[in-house]
Design a protein that fits this description.
This protein is mainly α and 412 residues long. The protein has 14 helices and 15 strands. A hairpin with a 5-residue loop joins strand 6 and strand 7. The two termini are 16 Å apart.
Length: 412
C-alpha cells in the first residue's frame, strides 16, 4: 500500500526526470538557434522553430544568457562543455565591447546586430545583468578583468539603488513623486546573493546592503499582510490610485524565494514564515485563476478588484510560473507541508500542459491568452524572454528535488 510520503517521492522523481529533459532541450534550443556567428552575441527574438524574426539585441538577455551558460558549466558536470564555455566568453566579450560604457559604467538596453547602440534604459537592470554575467565569467575563467568590471558596476548599482538614481536620467517630477518600486530592492538582493553566497568575506562586507534590501522588500507587504504591492511610498505606505493597488503575483512569488534564500542564509525563522506564508502562498492564492480557465497565474491584478490598466493583465506568462515552481520547491524543502507540494503540482502541471512545446524543438512558449491559447503569439524568444527564466527554473528545480529526495531517503 502506498503512503503519502511514497506518493510524494514517486511524483518528485517523475518531475526530476522530466525537468532534466526540459533543461537539455532548452539548452539545445538556444545553442542551436540564438548564436550570431558573424557579429557575436545572441539573437533574442526567435519563433517557435527558432527562426530569427528581429536581429535587435537586448542587454538584459545578453547578460542573462552569459550568466546561464556559466552557471550550468560550473555547477553541472554534464554541461561542463567547451562549446558552452566558448559561447559564454564570446557573449561576454560582445557585452563589454558593445553594451558597456566605461566612462560612466552604464549599459545600453538595445543595440543593432552589429553592436551600434539604439537605446539606453533609465533603469539599473541592464547593468545588473551585465554584472551577473561578469561575476560568473570570472568564476569559470579566472580572468581578473571580469571581476574588475563587476566591481566597478556594482559600486554604481549600489549608489543608484540606495542613494541617488538621478544619474540614470529619469527626472522626479512634481506629479510623480519618489516611490519604492519592488523591482529595485529585489534586483539588488539578487545581485548581492549571486555575488556573495559563495564567499563568507563578501557576505560580511555586504550584510548591511542585504538587510536594506530585505527591509525594503518587506515594506511592500500591505493590507494586513494579504497583498504584496508593486509600488509603495518611500516610507512603506500604500499609495493612492490604481498605481497603489497594482500587484504582479509572479513578481511577489519571486520576491518570496529571494527572501526565503536570505532567511535560510541568516537562519531567521520569522523571515522564513513571512516569505513562505505571505509572499509565496498568499500571492499564489491571489493570482491563481479560476477553474473556468484551468488555472494559471494572472499577470497583473488590482487588489480591490477594479479594472487593471495594462491590457495584458489577464494573460498568463511563462516567467511567473517558472518562479512559482522554484518557490514552492524551495518552500517544501524548508518546510515539509503537503499543501506546498500540492501548489507546486498545480503550477507544474499547468506549465507542462500549456507552456511546453510537445514538438521536437525545445524551450517553452512565453505568452498565453487567459484561456491558455498561445496561437496569437507563439514565440520562444523576444525582447524580455531569453535564455534565462526557463533554464534557471529547470536547473534550480532539479537541484531542489534532488536535495528533497536525498533527505527523504536518509530519513527513511
Amino acid at each position: 500500500m502506498s503512503t503519502p510520503l511514497m506518493d510524494a517521492v514517486s511524483f518528485l522523481g517523475d518531475c526530476l526526470d522530466r525537468l532534466e529533459s526540459e533543461l537539455k532541450r532548452g539548452v539545445d534550443f538556444w545553442l542551436t538557434h540564438s548564436h550570431d556567428e558573424e557579429h557575436g552575441g545572441f539573437f533574442n527574438c526567435l519563433t517557435r522553430e527558432g527562426i530569427v524574426f528581429d536581429d535587435t539585441k537586448y542587454g538584459w538577455l545578453q547578460g542573462r544568457q552569459v550568466w546561464m551558460y556559466c552557471k550550468l558549466y560550473r555547477e553541472r558536470e554534464d554541461f561542463r562543455r567547451d562549446d558552452l564555455l566558448r559561447a559564454a566568453i564570446a557573449g561576454g566579450e560582445f557585452l563589454i565591447k558593445h553594451f558597456y560604457r566605461c566612462e560612466d559604467h552604464r549599459c545600453y538596453f538595445t543595440v543593432q546586430r552589429n553592436g551600434l547602440p539604439i537605446y539606453m534604459q533609465r533603469k539599473l537592470f541592464t547593468e545588473s545583468f551585465f554584472l551577473l554575467a561578469m561575476t560568473e565569467l570570472f568564476r569559470v575563467t579566472g580572468e581578473k578583468k571580469y571581476q574588475e568590471l563587476a566591481d566597478a558596476v556594482f559600486g554604481k548599482i549600489r549608489y543608484w539603488a540606495r542613494e541617488d538614481d538621478s544619474e540614470l536620467g529619469r527626472p522626479h517630477l512634481a506629479g510623480n513623486p519618489r516611490a519604492n518600486e519592488l523591482a529595485i530592492p529585489m534586483m539588488f538582493l539578487c545581485v548581492l546573493q549571486e555575488m556573495c553566497l559563495e564567499d563568507e568575506n563578501l557576505l560580511k562586507k555586504h550584510k548591511d546592503d542585504m538587510k536594506w534590501c530585505t527591509q525594503h522588500i518587506l515594506s511592500h507587504l500591505q493590507r494586513d499582510k494579504r497583498f504584496v504591492l508593486e509600488t509603495v511610498s518611500p516610507e512603506g505606505i500604500e499609495l493612492e490610485g490604481s498605481r497603489g493597488r497594482f500587484m504582479n503575483p509572479g513578481h511577489a512569488i519571486e520576491a518570496g524565494w529571494f527572501l526565503l534564500r536570505q532567511a535560510n542564509l541568516l537562519d531567521d525563522d520569522e523571515l522564513r514564515k513571512t516569505a513562505v506564508d505571505h509572499f509565496i502562498v498568499r500571492s499564489f492564492a491571489n493570482g491563481w485563476d479560476s477553474a473556468k480557465y484551468d488555472g494559471g497565474l494572472i499577470y497583473f491584478l488590482d487588489i480591490d478588484g477594479r479594472p487593471s490598466i495594462p491590457l495584458e493583465s489577464n494573460m498568463k506568462l511563462w516567467w511567473p510560473h517558472c518562479e512559482a515552481i522554484i518557490a514552492f520547491l524551495m518552500a517544501y524543502r524548508t518546510r515539509r507541508d503537503d499543501v506546498l507540494l500540492q501548489h507546486f503540482k498545480k503550477v507544474y502541471d499547468y506549465s507542462m500542459k500549456y507552456f511546453r512545446d510537445d514538438g521536437e524543438v525545445g524551450e517553452w512558449f512565453g505568452y498565453l491568452a487567459r484561456n491558455g491559447s498561445r496561437d496569437e503569439n507563439p514565440l520562444k524568444g523576444g525582447p524580455y524572454k531569453g535564455c534565462f527564466h526557463t533554464l534557471r527554473c529547470f536547473h534550480m528545480a532539479t537541484q531542489l528535488i534532488r536535495e528533497i529526495l536525498k533527505t527523504e531517503l536518509v530519513k527513511n
